[in-house]
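A reminder from the course coordinator: this example appears on the midterm review sheet, so study it carefully.

Given structure:
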């Protein structure tokens, strides 16, 4: 059994990540499947799934099968999770996202891509041939 302070540190470390914080904030208003969460927080489905696995491993969220989909919800039964998530969700609803938090750029915000760097007009790859979702997946 881990101590209360260790549990609090674990929760803060996991929810401190901007992407995981966005997922927790999205789940605050109700259960969602991975597809809905990914669209809402602006991450790929595989990246969102990895974040959910980390949150589920720490018992911050739980998944329950509903037909072909798995619906994720916050674990409010744990008093520490409930208290932390309540504070985080209420705080985040009052303030704008923190500077430096991840979000998808609008097409008009993206830097222009040189013709030789992109393999095709619809393939947003870096000059090294690696897509943004592949980088996100690697970083997790």
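Designed residues:
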């Amino acid at each position: 059994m881990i101590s209360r302070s260790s549990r609090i540190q674990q929760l803060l470390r996991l929810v401190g990540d901007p992407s995981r914080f966005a997922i927790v904030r999205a789940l605050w208003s109700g259960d969602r499947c991975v597809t809905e969460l990914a669209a809402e927080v602006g991450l790929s489905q595989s990246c969102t799934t990895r974040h959910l696995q980390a949150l589920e491993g720490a018992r911050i969220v739980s998944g329950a099968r509903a037909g072909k989909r798995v619906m994720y919800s916050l674990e409010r039964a744990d008093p520490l999770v409930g208290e932390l998530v309540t504070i985080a969700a209420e705080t985040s609803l009052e303030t704008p996202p923190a500077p430096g938090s991840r979000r998808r750029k609008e097409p008009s915000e993206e830097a222009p891509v040189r013709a030789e760097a992109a393999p095709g007009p619809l393939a947003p790859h870096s000059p090294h041939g690696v897509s943004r979702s592949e980088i996100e997946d690697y970083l997790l």
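The chain is about 50% helix and 10% strand. Strands lie at 61-66, 69-74.
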